[in-house]
Design a protein that fits this description.
The chain is mainly alpha-helical. 66% of the residues lie in helices and 0% in strands. The chain has one domain. Keywords: Membrane, Transmembrane, Transmembrane helix.
Length: 138
């Protein structure tokens, strides 16, 4: 598709005969992105042993995503052909899939999430005679 668009600039209008194939590819890519994103956050929930770790893992995930978007924006701002951009995307998938498999294969076995996590009860630091302590007693 990228090669075809590189040689013949499409109008991508409803009346264009090739509109459907370009539009369908775009829709499939958006659905794939949403499903992958949802699956990634589902996995983060299993990796975290405590609820606070979910926030940390999500932050790291978002940072890596932002770095990827910066690289993508940098590549898109060059005059490189779209086929190079598609090749780089597939190369990153080739790197990510085997590494992701190493984590995914242990979900439910080693990574079970916050199953059995019991929050620690912290003693209150409210002193006698403090208005907050009177409210706490109610």
């Amino acid at each position: 598709m990228m090669h075809k668009y590189q040689h013949h600039k499409p109008a991508l209008d409803w009346d264009d005969a090739a509109f459907g194939e370009g539009w369908a590819l775009y829709v499939f890519q958006q659905v794939e992105f949403a499903l992958t994103y949802n699956y990634g956050y589902w996995m983060l929930g299993f990796l975290a042993k405590k609820p606070v770790e979910i926030v940390r893992y999500s932050s790291v995930c978002r940072a890596v995503e932002a770095a990827g978007q910066c690289v993508s924006s940098g590549i898109s701002s060059t005059k490189s052909p779209p086929i190079i951009q598609a090749g780089l995307m597939l190369a990153w998938w080739g790197v990510a899939l085997p590494l992701g498999f190493l984590v995914v294969r242990k979900i439910g076995i080693e990574h079970v999430g916050a199953e059995g996590y019991v929050p620690e009860a912290k003693p209150s630091k409210v002193s006698e005679g403090d208005p907050a302590s009177e409210v706490a007693k109610l």
